[in-house]
Amino acid sequence: MSAAKKDLVVALDMIMKDLPPILLFTFAIGAMCSMTAMALKKQRFFHMLFRRFYVEASPNDDVYITSFTATCPWCGTKMNLRNVGPAKGRRNDVFVCERNPEQHTISLDPTILTDLNS
Predict the structure, then answer these.
(1) pLDDT digits (tens, 9 = 90+) for 97-112
(2) For residue 63, what are the β-bridge partners?
(3) Is the pTM of this model over 0.85?
(4) Beta strands in 1-118 (DSSP E)
(5) Pick from 116, 90, 96: nearest CA to 108
(6) What value does the mean pLDDT of the chain take?
(7) How far is CA 100 from CA 66, 91, 109, in A?
(8) How many CA within 13 A on the CB side of residue 4?
(9) Comparing C-alpha atoms, which of 75, 115, 113, 72 is closest to residue 96?
(10) Residue 79: beta bridge partners?
(11) Which residues, at least 6 apart from 67, have a Cβ–Cβ distance to it below 8 Å?
(12) Percent of the chain with pLDDT over 70
């Protein structure tokens, strides 16, 4: 490692030791908000918070945290929207029945959702 890199590492280490924990927490919240804003510009609907809640942006750029439910057309039980699939790879938003999660599923097409009203 070059001398300049070592000096940078030492300087960053000194800065991190002197920062109060609340400042680090504030930085983490700010970074999460920035990533959310970038994702909403790309697509107006995406999952977050353990894949149980979704963030939506209305046409006038208001932001909402939503949770979707439905009634199973086969057995009448509650269905929850989940982001399912392999850990690495493409995941899909699917309504999953609480009574029979293996067989009673409905894929969600977010393009058919109506726009959020302010």
Answers:
(1) 999 999 999 998 877 7
(2) 57
(3) no
(4) 45-48, 53-57, 63-66, 69-71, 78-84, 92-97, 105-107
(5) 96
(6) 81
(7) 24, 20, 21
(8) 0
(9) 72
(10) 70, 97
(11) 52, 53, 54, 80, 81
(12) 87
Indicate whether 67 and 106 sit together in one domain: yes
State CA 67 to chain mean position distance. 12
106 and 62 assigned to the same domain = yes
With 70 as the cut, is the pLDDT of residue 18 above it? no
Range of the domain at 29: 1-42
| One-letter amino acid for residue 99 of the chain | R
Kindly state the tokens that stand for 28.
């983490």
For 82, left (φ over 0), alpha (ψ -120 to 50), or beta? beta
Instruction: Tell whether 28 and 54 lie within a shared domain.
Output: no
Residue among 118, 110, 115, 116 at smallest CA distance from 45: 110
Degrees (nearest 5) of the Cα angle 44, 91, 106?
A: 85
